[in-house]
Design goal:
The structure is a homodimer of 238-residue chains.
Chain A lengths: L15 H14 L8 E2 L1 H8 L3 H13 L3 E3 L5 E3 L4 H24 L3 H15 L14 H16 L4 H25 L5 H13 L3 H26 L8
Helix pairs in contact in A: 1-3, 4-7, 4-9, 5-6, 5-8, 7-9, 8-9
Chain A binds a DNA duplex (30 and 30 nucleotides) through helix 3.
Chain lengths: 238, 238
DNA sequence: TAAAGATAAAATTTATAAATTTCTCTCTGC
DNA sequence: GCAGAGAGAAATTTATAAATTTTATCTTTA
C-alpha cells in the first residue's frame, strides 16, 4: 500500500510477478501478514489468485530484502520481529540518514529547499488519522511523510545509499504498524518535522542531524514500550 | 568463486535455486558474464544445466541486489558498468565503511584486535598473483583480503550495515576484475593494509578512517584510468 | 517410551502452454 | 527507387499444470 507511493507515474507493472511482489510486500509491511507466519504456497496461490512461478519469484525477491526468510526445502516465512532488530535498524538508520542528510545539506540548492518546504506544508495539513477519535491509518499522510523524509536525504548524491535508507524505512515501518494504534495521540510528531525543517533551512547541519536522530529514536522508544508491554512474543528473535 | 568465501562451513545449499544463484553471482562478479550482456533463458538453461524455475528465481534475487537488470517482458541483463556508478559506489563505500570502522573501533576488544592482526598476517604472506610474471588471480588472496576488510567493520554492531557494505564490495569487485590484469604491480597494496592495521591498533580512529578512505579512492583511481584508457564503452550508463 | 517405518503434506523442479516482443518481409506513399 | 508503416512469423519471456523430491506427521513395533 505504501510501497512505491513515491513513483507516481510508474509504468505498467507488466508482469504478474512484480504485481504480486508489490502486493505481498505491502501486506507484510502493514502486518496483514503477521511476522513469523508461514507463507504456504497453496495459501498464497489461492489468496493472491496466481500461479506458483510468479509467487515464487516474488518471494525470492523479498528474501533478498530480508522481509521474507526462505528456509531451504521447507518453505518461506514472514521475517519475525524482535526488539533486537528494532534496535539495530534504528541505530543504523540514525547513522546513515544523518550521514545522508549532511551530504544533502552540503549540496543544498534553492530548488531543494523549496521542495522541502512544500513537502512539509502538504504533510502538515494532512490529518494523521482518518478518524479523530481512534486511529485509522491515512494512506495520504503516510505517503507525504515518506516523501518528506525521502527528500531530506534525496540530495546526498548516492543512489545506493538512498536505496539502503528506503530499505531500512520499509523494515521499520512494520514495527510502527504494530504499535501505531496505541501510540496515536501521545506524540506531536508534527512539531518534530517542523523543527527539522527549520534547522535545514537555517543551514544548521549539526542541529538538523541531532533532531533527525532524536526523531527516529523517539519513535523506537514508543514502539519498544508498546511492544514490550503488550505481548512478549516480540522478543522471540528466531 | 569469491562469493561466500567467508562462510566456510556453510550448510548444504540444498536447493538448486541457491546453488545456481551462487554460481551466477560469481560469474557476474568475475565478469565471465560481461556487463550489459543479455541473459537468455535458453542459454542459461543449457549452460547451467537447470530448469527455468530455479534460474528465474536466481535472476530475481540478483535483480534485487542490482547485479542483474530485469526488463519486464523482455528479459534479464547483466548490470552494465559505468564510470558514474564506479564513482557513486566508491563514494558510498568510503562514507559507510569509515562510519562502520569508527563504530568498530569504539567497540574494540582485545579479541577483535588480535583477530585483525592474524587476518593481516595471513594476507601479507599470501601472494597476490599465482604467477610472478603476469597476473593470475589467486583465490586464496582474494578470500583473505575480503576477510581482513570484513573484520575491520565487523565490530560495528549492525548486521544491516555490514550487509550493505558487502553488497558494495561485491558491486565494486566487478570493476576491479575488469582492470586488475593491468593494474597489477603498479601498487603496493600491502603497505596500505599495514598502515591501516597500525592505525587501528594505535587506536587512532581519525587516521584509520583517513587511510581506509584513501585505500578505496586509490583503487577507484586506478580502475578509472585503466577503464577510461582502454575502452570507452564503459561510459555507457544504461 | 523410544525408534522405525509408512503415509501425508509441502516444497522444488520439470514440462507444457499462453502471451508478449522482436524481427522480417511486404506493401504503400512520396 | 527508397523510406516508413503494417501485417505476419519466429523467438523469447511469462504463466500454468504436472511430476518429483524432500520433509513432517502419525502409527506401529520393539
Amino acid at each position: 500500500m505504501n510501497v512505491n507511493l513515491l513513483k507516481k507515474g510508474a509504468e505498467s507493472p507488466a508482469t504478474l510477478a512484480t504485481s504480486i511482489y508489490e502486493r505481498l510486500k505491502a501486506d507484510i509491511l502493514s502486518t496483514r501478514l503477521e511476522p513469523g507466519r508461514k507463507l504456504q504456497l497453496r495459501f498464497l496461490i489461492e489468496h493472491y489468485d496466481a500461479g506458483q512461478t510468479p509467487l515464487r519469484e516474488a518471494l525470492n525477491r523479498l528474501t533478498t530484502e530480508d522481509l521474507v526468510i526462505g528456509k531451504e526445502q521447507r518453505g518461506f516465512f514472514v521475517k519475525p520481529i524482535s526488539l533486537d532488530e528494532l534496535h539495530e535498524l534504528t541505530k543504523t538508520r540514525c547513522w546513515v540518514e544523518t550521514l545522508a542528510l549532511r551530504e544533502s545539506m552540503a549540496n543544498a540548492t534553492p530548488d531543494w529547499e523549496e521542495a522541502l518546504l512544500v513537502a512539509h506544508h502538504r504533510l502538515e495539513r494532512t490529518p494523521r488519522s482518518l478518524n479523530a477519535e481512534r486511529f485509522e491509518d491515512n494512506p495520504e499522510w503516510e505517503m507525504l511523510h515518506r516523501a518528506f523524509h525521502a527528500l531530506l536525504i534525496g540530495g546526498c548524491g548516492s543512489k545506493p545509499l538512498i536505496g539502503f535508507c528506503e530499505q531500512l524505512a520499509d523494515r521499520l515501518y512494520r514495527y510502527r504498524a504494530l504499535s501505531i494504534r496505541k501510540a496515536f495521540r501521545v506524540r506531536k510528531v508534527g512539531d518534530e518535522h517542523a523543527a527539522i525543517l527549520k534547522a535545514v533551512l537555517d543551514r544548521d547541519t549539526a542541529e538538523a542531524e541531532r533532531l533527525l536522530q532524536l526523531h527516529y529514536e523517539k519513535t523506537a522508544d514508543i514502539i519498544r514500550a508498546d511492544l514490550g508491554a503488550t505481548n512478549n512474543d516480540a522478543a522471540a528473535t528466531r
